[in-house]
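Lay summary. Proteins are chains of building blocks that fold into shapes, and those shapes determine what they do. In this project we predict the shape from the chain. Here is one chain we studied, written as its sequence of building blocks.
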Amino acid sequence: MIFWEKLLSSFSFMQISIPQIIMILLALLLAYLAIVKKYEPLLLLPLAFGMLIANIPLAGLSAHDKGGLIYYLYQGIELGIYPPMIFLCIGAMTDFGPLIASPRSALIGLGGQLGIFAAMGGALLLGQGLAYVIPGIEPFSLQEAAAIGIIGSSDGPTSIYTADILAPNLLPVITIAAYSYMALVPLIQPPIMRALTTTKERVVEMPESKRVTRRQKIFFAFGITLATLLLVPAAGSLIAMLMLGNLIRESGVTERYVRSLQNNLLNVLTLLIGISVGATATAERILNPNTILVICLGLFAFSFGTVGGVLIAKFLCKITGGKVNPLIGNSGVSAMPMAARVSQKLGQEYNPHNHLLMHAMGPIVSSTIGSALIAGIFITFFGS
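And here is the predicted shape, written in a compact code that computers can read:
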């Protein structure tokens, strides 16, 4: 009798709970979106699998099971290694030429950061207000609100890096929200762009960008690195790796590095981040009212960031006498390169001669730099 009791108790299905079953079903839904709908499959598929195995009792495969495989893989996030390495790869893929050629596009990237502060304020206000009327909701701390706000940057690695330092308890839901909204850029942004622009503005043809030399790009990378390390050192690891990757790209003497960073290393890091973060999403950490609130605040942050970018682009259109198409304003969020593709597609719907893709890359790369700097400021002021 004792033998059979021990045998049955060794089976995971004998100890599985309803919340764990819900998380397993959610993991299968995310896997469906990745495989069938192709929503960010490179990250969403390993994330869904990590969530699945983390919620199987007795398996010891969550990021919180000390000594297990996933626990050690997760140390790359815990120790702040994976996100800066992702930035290294992104730098090797990024052309800063459009930003250097048109520095005013940085203003659009700045406007795209408004969503960060709107969501941060919303988290503090809603958390306090709803805690009085809805059981189970707890007020967000300043650190948690700052981490939630960074979702508005639409920059997955920056969101992970900030959440891991300021609010590790919210890391799974912040990561899922950040990458989900990046995948949904083609659905979320166009209605906002149409609502805030006129037909006359949408058909504006932007002149071809000025040519930027390799020397200018190399000076830019060194200059941004030095300025960041001197003024916002907490953002140094992200920006330094981003600029190192870009120097490798622009130097012209390290082609082997460029190929490795753009393909092999980026793919491996994305896989490790996906399964590690997914394995933190256990039932007791996800299934609570605060999670739903974070998801809603993330959508608000992303939408408000799009609004801020488009409004700044409209302002630039006006003061330049119609030389800036406001449709590139959606690229004020750093959803690279999806936001730029949305700008291009929507622009050509209204004017087949519109070529907005490269013009939209300027705000995107400035937003990537800007969100990393804001994250560094948050970590400096709100971190322990």
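What the prediction tells us: The mean pLDDT is 88.
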